[in-house]
Design goal:
With about 450 residues, this protein is an alpha/beta fold. Helices cover about 40% and strands about 15% of the residues. It folds into two domains: about 35-65 and about 350-455, Aspartate Aminotransferase, domain 1 (Alpha-Beta Complex), CATH 3.90.1150.10; about 75-350, Aspartate Aminotransferase, domain 2, CATH 3.40.640.10. It has 17 helices and 16 strands. About 45% of the residues are buried.
Length: about 450
């Protein structure tokens, strides 16, 4: 192996960029024609490319570096654990101290939701897969084996495994891999900017919850295992539900005896301005999926947590009781050590409150973009925000994904040292939860500059 490969020499990595790697969520030809920016360093709320250019990270990498980059507390926790035990599995009769400590910490943090057990995984897609499987197993253990179907929302994103894809509502994520799993159905999202019924938040929440009830009753409640949703839809469009939506969904699930799964992969650990997205809406799910902010991405980690109702199903002797699910890296000691240090920061620095405060300022500044004709909508909660671009405000016709106008806006922001993400026709902001108002100002001014220089044709 050459010394260039080992050292990560700048000329070497630039020459080999996109030559051997297929990058997620993009046509390989696009990566080859426009090689990705090579991020080689990071600190706080900034990242640096291989050429030394620094950017304000308005995406927290991929919604997940919540406490910021290069935190010595997390790095030291990983090093300390590395000196003790780098890795050992948690299958069967083996465990390790960091996974035990983290499970205890999560149980304490999630006591308001009544969560009682956790099974660790390697990321968000894994956490969703675990939730879907455990919900089916639960119904078998309580003597209702026909309850196997799942409901979710259009525009939902629940990861890349076949289970997660099957309950995801975005066609582009699924199309290349269809047919997906049978028995998975979607209802309309409570998308205030784009719905066929009303401009009233509360009425929309009632309409969508009633739709779920009708659809479950149509299938037969005795065949439906669970409803899964993100407390705030992220990758599928940054859709903030009406305040009554989640409480009404909880009522529907209770009445029809259907489990409620909250996909908290993005919303967990402070991003919405509360510690958990479900808590933001005052709702207690039966199962929660966690990842991303659990350790800010320093080492891959996910978790599926379940409440006492679910746990009780495993109390009796049953040949169906063994949990035949898990991953080689479930409860990885380094990942759990990183999570413990990360969550200490989240709590001690009260990052949910900072997300609420700075997020409120962010949405105020983004509302200034209404002066630009192709800005159709600005929305968000906490440090989850989006600007939606349209061809025409009256018709709300979206600008197509990868349109030159959108790419020009993104490029102009990058030239101004602000790293942003364009998803379909939306610019999504999901910065580290340590963002300050001054960072918001820098980001918004860069977007204003981009919108002033780009012209939609």
């Amino acid at each position: 192996m050459s010394s260039s490969i080992r050292s990560g020499d700048a000329n070497f990595v630039i020459e080999n960029n996109a030559r051997h790697v297929w990058h997620p969520m993009i046509d390989p030809k696009m990566s080859a024609e426009n090689p990705p920016v090579i991020v080689s360093g990071s600190d706080g709320v900034h990242i640096t490319d291989v050429n030394g250019k620094e950017y304000l990270d308005c995406t927290a990498s991929l919604w997940n570096v919540n406490v910021g980059h290069n935190r010595p507390e997390i790095k030291n926790a990983i090093i300390d654990q590395l000196d003790k035990l780098a890795y050992y599995n948690t299958f069967g009769n083996a465990s390790n101290p960091p996974s035990i400590a983290l499970s205890t910490m999560l149980a304490e943090m999630l006591e308001p939701e009544g969560m009682a057990r956790v099974i660790f995984s390697s990321g968000g897609s894994d956490a969703v897969e675990g939730a879907l499987k455990l919900s089916r197993q639960y119904w078998k253990l309580v003597g209702k084996p026909e309850k196997t179907k799942f409901y979710s929302l259009k525009n939902a994103y629940h990861g890349v495994h076949f289970g997660g894809l099957s309950v995801s509502g975005g066609i582009p994520w699924r199309r290349a891999f269809e047919p997906v799993l049978p028995g998975c159905f979607q209802i309309d999202s409570p998308y205030l900017y784009r719905n066929d019924w009303t401009e009233d938040h509360e009425e929309l929440g009632e309409i969508c919850a009633a739709m779920l009830a009708r659809e479950i009753e149509h299938q037969g409640p005795d065949t439906v295992a669970a409803f899964i949703a993100e407390p705030v839809q992220g990758a599928g469009g940054m859709i903030v539900p009406p305040a009554n939506f989640w409480p009404r969904i909880r009522e529907v699930c209770d009445r029809l005896d259907v489990l409620l799964i909250a996909d908290e992969v993005v919303t967990g650990f402070g991003r919405t301005g509360t510690m958990f997205g479900s808590r933001h809406w005052g709702v207690k799910p039966d199962i929660m999926c966690l990842a991303k902010g659990i350790n800010s991405g320093y080492v891959p980690l996910g978790a599926t947590v379940v409440n006492q109702r679910i746990v009780k199903a495993w109390d009796k002797d049953d040949p169906m009781a063994p949990i035949m699910h898990g991953y080689t890296y479930s409860g990885h000691p380094l990942a759990c050590a990183a999570a413990l240090a990360n969550l200490d920061i989240v709590i001690e620095e009260n990052l949910p409150a900072n997300a609420s405060d700075v997020g409120g300022y962010f949405i105020e500044r983004l509302n200034e973009l209404a002066q630009y004709p192709n800005v159709g909508d600005v929305r968000g909660v906490g440090l989850m925000l989006a600007v939606e671009f349209v061809k025409d405000r009256q018709t709300k016709e979206p600008i197509p994904a990868f349109d030159p106008y959108l790419m020009a806006i993104q490029s102009a922001c990058m030239e101004a040292n602000v790293w942003v993400r364009i998803q379909a026709n939306k610019m999504i902001f999901s910065p580290p939860l340590v963002f300050e108002n001054s960072h918001v100002d820098q980001a918004v001014e860069a977007v204003k500059h981009a919108l002033s220089t780009a012209e939609y044709v």
